Automatic annotation (TrEMBL):
Residues 1018-1197, 1209-1228, 1234-1298 are annotated as: Disordered. Residues 1094-1104 have a biased composition (Pro residues). The chain crosses the membrane at residues 279-298, 670-688, 770-790, 802-824, 830-848, 868-887, 949-968. Residues 675-970 form the Calcium channel YVC1-like C-terminal transmembrane domain. Residues 1247-1260 have a biased composition (Gly residues). Residues 1080-1093 have a biased composition (Low complexity). Residues 8-127 form the Saccharopine dehydrogenase NADP binding domain. It comes from Leucosporidium creatinivorum. This is Saccharopine dehydrogenase-domain-containing protein. Residues 1140-1149 have a biased composition (Basic residues). Residues 450-637 form the YVC1 N-terminal linker helical domain. Keywords: Membrane, Transmembrane, Transmembrane helix. Coiled coil: none annotated.
Amino acid sequence: MAPRPYQIVVYGATGFTGQLVAQYLSTIEAVAGKWAVAGRNKAKVEERMNEVGVKAPVIVADASDHESLVQMCKQTKLVISLVGPYTTYGEPLVAAAAENGTHYVDLTGETPFVAHMVRKYARTAISTNALIIHACGYDSVPSDLTTFLAVQRLKGLIGESGKVGPVRSAFSFKGEVSGGTISSALTIMDGSADDKKIGMNPYALSPIAGSYKPLPTVVTSSTFAGKRTWGSFWIMGPYNSQIVRRSWGILETSDPSSKVLSYGSEFNYNEFMSMKGPISAFLASFSLLLSFAVLALFPPARWALRKWGPQPGTGPSKEMQETGWFKVVTTAKSVDGKHEAQMIMKGKGDPGYAATAKMITECALSIVLDYDRLPPLAKQGGPLTPATALGTVLVERLENTGHFSFSAGEGKKSEMAASSERAPLIGSAKPDMGSYTPAHPDLASLDVYSAIHRVFRDIRQWVDVPLSDEQMRSPEIQFAIIQPLEASFAEMNDPSIVYVLLLVRLQFLRERDSTLASSSLNETRAHLCELLAIKLLRHQATIEKGGNAGLLAMARALVGGLHAFQGAKEDVLERIRQSEGYASRVIAEGAGKTNALELAILGRARLFIKSQATQRVITAIWEGKIVYSSSSFINILPDRWKIQQINIYSVKDAPILDHYRLRVPKYRSMIDTGSFLVLFISFIAVIVDHHKRADNLPVDALSLHEKWFFFYGLGYSLDKLASVTEHGWSVYASGLTNGLDLMTVPIIALSFVFRIHSVWTNQEWASEQGFAILSCAACLLFPRLAFAAVSNNVLILSLRAMLADFFYLMAIAVFCFLGFVFALNHLCDGAYSISRISEWLIFIWFGLDGTGLEKSPKFHPYLGPGLITVYAALSNTLLVSLLVSILSTTYSQIAADAAAEDMFRKAVLTFEGVKSDSLFDYFPPLNLLALCIMWPISHVTSPRWFHKINVATCRLLSMPILLLIALYERQSSPNSPIRAWFSDLRVRMTQALPSRWTQKLSLLEGEPRLLCEAVFEYTPSGDEKEDSDEDDEPLSEDEVEDAIDPEAQRRNNCGRASRILAAPTRNISGAGTPVPPSLTTPSGATLPSGSPAPSLPPTRPTSPPTAAARPSKPTPISPSPSKQAVRFDSSPPSPSTLRPKPRSSHHQHPERLPSNASSGGYGTITRTRSPDRLNFDNSALSTSPHPPAPSAPARFESPLAKLYQFHEMDGSGSSVPNAGGVGGLKRRLSLGHQARAQTMSTAGTSGSWGAGGSAAGPGGEQMKELMNMVAELQNSLKRMEKRLEEKEGKEREGDRDD
């Protein structure tokens, strides 16, 4: 073979891409002087090269002249074909290159062309060792290379036994669509039916067909390391996917030396254009597919696009070429879903021109300069793909240019977040996570899925019989079931436990409704979950120091965003994706998050919502003290650039114009009320104006009142529809007035349609119908106004539930009574219409008219009157009675606990008030403008820039309201300047008035209510009270210090119910058992170290304590060498050591006892995690510095305490706990396999407490005393019964004598 003078020839150098390729080749020293350009017109080619400053030999070749193409191919090793459309001009050059052993690369994106070239010239190219490589530009080098690298990386992770499964590529870019790409697409549409069929076949280019049948991409997504990327239809996706599947087919059918790189039989590929969320993905897909449908179905549309659209050979400006970029993220996952790998390719420059020119040039250079390093398949020649022919050689060359980079995804913070900050104002941005945003760091790492199944299993195991409310409150259940479960779940130290319990409760409620046989049991389990959720929500505050920290911890547990499958293994998610479809896949992968408050609302957990801890968090959120960004599945105008984590709001650190304050529920409620009032007034104005000008009002024009009303009404309707999509229909329907608001929307819309129709057609009937429909809105607007005015009234609260029951019963009744309509219509044999029969039945139903009874014989002499009579009895008697009964029951249930219902409605209003959609930052009707202007801007700007534009616009339009909110919040504190100024002004004005006027003014202000409020405002210490709930806050740092100080504890423990019910214990020097922190003698002196705890005499006070016995100020005893004060074993614990620590399964924890059982030194009851055993510890005894009050029995006096404590005497005469652990609370209910019968037997113990037993020491004496008390009680009852019997006998004898 004669030597060839050139290594590369650029064919089609006069085009825009050809010039870029020539420019780039001129910078490669390795081929300097060894390349040439070619074209039909030599002068034109030279002119174009001079314009771009390139000097290269020119070869004349024409696609219509086969001989010229052959001569060109014989002069070079490789030809770069840039002449398109390739279906029209490309085949002659492919044939010439294959025949002459010349390597060939092109930029084609036409599937039929590639398929025909493979079929016609594959054997010829293989025989001459000529490489034929199509799609060497932006389509399809990034797709092919990243898939090849991701699959090889995944195979290294899964080994030989694993199989490669789904592979997905996400494209994002900034650039222009090239005229050549558009021309290729139009050529395919103009092609024959066979060509169109080839283009639609996913395996048209592959040597073998796969089992995967891809569906049209509308809305799709891909996940890696738990992060989701949403995507839409990608214009280059079908062709790129066919090239990638060709690579798969080539490797699957190759020889063993190349088959080691194969992707496997389970491989399936698809790609998409990354979008911000599912809504934007759907809209983008819809617009692209609609455009393609128009072009495919209407040839004139294709003609117009060819004439006025981007032309082949033209391209973007130099500035656009330099600022453009692209990014491809390819994720490969194993079949079992346990392993995943990701490859990211980034490129600088406009993808369709600058980057494409470099990619095809490097493909050519890889062949001519690195031929020896190419894979074995390349040495055989033939039609291959960039990945199978060039592989890692091309990857190295692209990286060495400095314009491309390849990296592996590590599952860390997405690199897209960093690139989006560098993204320019116009262009596509990083793939967004849609509505699934990272949760709080403490919440994102929680294994919610495992916790759900653990809690569900434990509740089912521990509770296997129904329990009544009284039994649930009984001490046995409290100490045997509820507290052990509480301790077990508290050991998890999991903030999601409240969410988990409420979710499990919903499951038990579903099982209750679906399985009637076990409905009572599941009701008990659901109630237990609610009780535990209340306790564990309070527990969140106890593990934090300080009031705000505790409140924040409870808020994080209550409103922190979680999803039920968080922490689930990949095989679980893959199982859901394969079996349940798109909706369940979105839920499983966390696109839609919920929180504990939402679950409580959905499950109607009124007991949980009315609890003090929940109300504290709800109140803080309502007032804006706690701020956070809610999570929703659908956002119409999403702005997720800056996510507000759950935090305490600080007025000092917040800006004056803080647009996030518009989402505070309190302010949002005021704004919604104001919006409704504007709508109501506008409605009244339209109706009144129509009546005034009914004769003169033109039909074909809208009045000024109508224009404003419909403009505002449509904005109001958009606000309500956005509220439904924000948190879903279930939550929205729980609102008090939301139903009325939503029913108003179709009335306004329908009236608007009729009026627009009348204006368009000048038809008076349409105008009259529009006003008639609009007038019906008064039936909804006036009740809505009443609900807004008196929303907390019990009648209003019950009216909503009663209306729901009424409509539900009416719907059932109408459905049932349709049978009578059907029967009567058949009996009359067409004599009366169905509407007339229905009218008669309705009149009978409501007792308005008896025409139906009169006409009944005409239906049938006997059956007609019978049916009508039965219907009248059922509808007018039975149904009305049933309706009254149901409505009365509903009202009584709500009225019985109206406070809980009111709290539930407030919880719904609070949860609804925290919005995530930035559309709510614009009030009606400005939200219509935001939808029309800001929504398109959000799709052409990066998230960072859209956030800036959105915030600036919102602050500008809402400036008056934001200023009022800022002024209110900054001047609402007691020491604010404005409040101080008003106080001074009031004092000066009062002093300036005459004395007789001042006295009258004081009398007017001195009503009892104001006086009662003022006496608590001005405290003895001089500090004005600011927060009525201060005592309910968790421990602050000062209170923690007080907890360490014994003297402070003595002061705080006096009369504080929470301290009496659950007093903490400590270790005393020389004692091995815990004792209460305040161990003092009745005189107030502290006990010496090592002294045993004293026992109170087992006597019962029979009279109130004397003055000498009354509490007096304790006098501390100074320490002496013989008597030392009580000391801790070590230095006093720091505040951090007072925080509850995780309890292991073998540790014991103190149980709460009633005040008359635990105060006064009864000791502590401890329980292990086993539900079968109660351990009684009475060694921790103490005396109180104050003698017991008459209502508080002394030690071992309370019968309840004696049921808990039974002491015996050991050999040394000390009181020890009874080894048998007997007592009333030792009896267990039968709760399944974990319950064990506890018998009250004393066999084998060292003492006895029966009637015939004897025991020495105080413990035995006390047991005897208890039994004596019981015996006395029994004797008293017997005597009373005997007297009653004697009295009754005398009465009977007297009756007989009479």
